[in-house]
Amino acid sequence: MRPIALTCGEPAGVGPELAVKAWETLGARLPFVYLGDPSHLPQGTPVAEISQPEQALSVVGRGLPVLAHDFGAPATPGTPVPDHAKHVIATIETATHLAQSGAVSAICTGPINKKALKDGANFAHPGHTEFLAALAGVDQVVMMLACPQLRVVPATIHIALSEVPKALTADGLRTTLKITHAELRKYFSLKNPRIAVAGLNPHAGEGGAMGREEITLITPVINDLRAEGLAISGPHSADTMFHDAARGHYDAAVCMYHDQALIPIKTLDFAGGVNVTLGLPFIRTSPDHGTAFDIAGSGRADPSSLIAALKMAQDMAFASAVRV
Q: Which compartments does it reside in (predicted)?
């Protein structure tokens, strides 16, 4: 397998120290190459600078493989440097090029700080996901959060709750479900993935007594896709979808808004959840946490989510290769 590209993320955050902890834990069992400034890594880190990603396979045993990108200034934990923003963006662009060219098997992205990118480089995208979609020339991608017990997909993401009913459309929901179905087949070795769809309203509208979106929008989309052969159920009442027995009846849950999806997965596995972008022409995962400026540089950051993200990227690459 080719190595995974790990972008540094915001160098004033926990990304650099987590990269080292992940390398110390995974070593040659899961080779990855770090894209960033080696001077931003914790002091004393064994570094093996390389010029091509494939060289990571031969040097990973003696140091963290690094494709060096000079940020031009040191990093201070907890305090972003405005001039670093353009370099953070450049590492994401480099990783995308490496993935599209086939030089790496997947991208795993370190956490960024969107305000720091906007302030320092007029970053115009809401976040990583949208930027990667733009770089790849993809119109719509899907965010999935995954852990061993649960996979969830929010049909709408970072918008106010009051805006959700207007943002939900039949075409958008249909596309989300079809992308989820296709990517579960491609990357998770599920021949006919079972997808459970949550309702928008309490008790999935209770026959129209608590809202009609289930009747007018969600159910027709589900019925159309069932007719195409997809194993989709719902709309289900969200308050009964996530207990142990219910989770055994589906492979992924598609929810109508951000917290409906993220509260259950973060309750089940707060430290080990992984953010996966579905619908890109390459594999992208990320730890499900932010830059944690308050603990950056202290050595207290938990690498569990990053390690899980790297492992999931490797598993997805393997599943895709076997399927081909």
A: Cytoplasm
Q: Which two tokens stand for residue 56?
A: 């990571």
Say whether 181 counts as a known binding-site residue: no
Question: Which of 292, 287, 290, 317 is CA-nearest to residue 304?
Answer: 287
What would the two tokens of residue 107 be? 């991208």
Residue 266 assigned ligand-binding role:
yes
Range of the domain at 181: 149-268
pLDDT of residue 217: 97
Residue 9 C-beta-side C-alpha neighbours within 13 Å: 31
List, for the chain, all residue ranges whose pLDDT scores fall below the cut of 50: 324
287 burial (CB, 10 Å; 0-12 / 13-18 / 19+) is: buried
Same domain, 221 and 308: no
Is 236 labeled as ligand-binding?
Answer: no
What DSSP state is assigned to residue 42?
P
- The pTM score is 0.93
The answer on whether 40 is annotated among ligand-binding residues is no
Residue 144 located in a structural domain:
no
Could you tell me how far CA 26 lies from the centroid of its own chain? 20
Q: How many domains is the chain partitioned into structurally? A: 2
- C-alpha 118/C-alpha 146 separation (Å) is 28
Confirm or deny that 226 is annotated as ligand binding.
no
Known binding residue 275? Answer is yes
pLDDT on residue 323: 63
Cα dihedral sign, 9-11-13-15 = positive
The answer to whether residue 178 sits within a structural domain is: yes
| All residues at 6 or more sequence positions from 118 whose CB lies less than 8 Å from its CB, including other chains | none
Final residue of a structural domain among 234, 252, 268: 268
Phi, psi of 52 (to 5 degrees): -135, 140
- All residues at 6 or more sequence positions from 2 whose CB lies less than 8 Å from its CB, including other chains: 53, 54, 102, 103, 104, 105, 317
Q: Does 203 count as an annotated binding residue?
A: yes
Strand order through the sheet with 142-147: 47-49, 64-68, 32-36, 4-7, 106-109, 284-287, 274-278, 142-147, 150-154, 252-255, 194-198, 231-236
